[in-house]
Amino acid sequence: QVQLVESGGGLVQAGGSLRLSCAASSSIFSINAMGWYRQAPGKQRELVARITSSGGTNYADSVKGRFTISRDNAKNTVTLQMNSLKPEDTAVYYCSAVAVFTTYWGQGTQVTVSS
User: What span, in angstroms and rounded, lies between the C-alpha atoms of 43 and 46?
Assistant: First the structure.
């Protein structure tokens, strides 16, 4: 069974917007936090944003003011609204869910921002 499924990636022009969504399987027990990471070619994977079950959020400095993470606990989903996109945002974006016993990862969705 797929634990996390991302959607919403695609190609967008600089200054545009995309919305990424991630759905967690109900089989994942007691998710404490969900987040988004990204990895660009030749670079390490980095945290973009995360949100706790209580609604607390953290953002990478590079995306503050442009990206917004939100969560629907009842549906076990997390959304990343990305505005004012820049070419340097181009990467594969991965959804992550931190549960009691392990951390789960999605398969990734490609985001490409053209200039």
Answer: 9
Q: Which two tokens stand for residue 80?
A: 């990343």
- The encoded tokens of residue 70 equal 């939100």
Q: What is the 3-state secondary structure (H, E, C) of 37-58?
A: EEECCCCCCEEEEEEECCCCEE
Cα–Cα distance measured from residue 92 to residue 40, given in angstroms and rounded to the nearest whole number: 6
Closest CA to 61 of 95, 88, 27: 88
* pLDDT tens-digit readout, 55-110: 999 999 999 999 999 998 777 899 999 999 999 999 999 999 998 888 999 999 99
- CA separation for the pair 9, 7 (Å, rounded): 6
Closest by CA position to 28, among listed 55, 52, 4, 56: 4
Q: What is the pLDDT of residues 22-66, one digit of tens each?
A: 999 877 778 889 999 999 999 999 999 999 988 999 999 999 999
91 with 6: CB under 8 angstroms?
Answer: no
Q: How far apart are CA 104 and CA 42, in angstroms?
A: 23
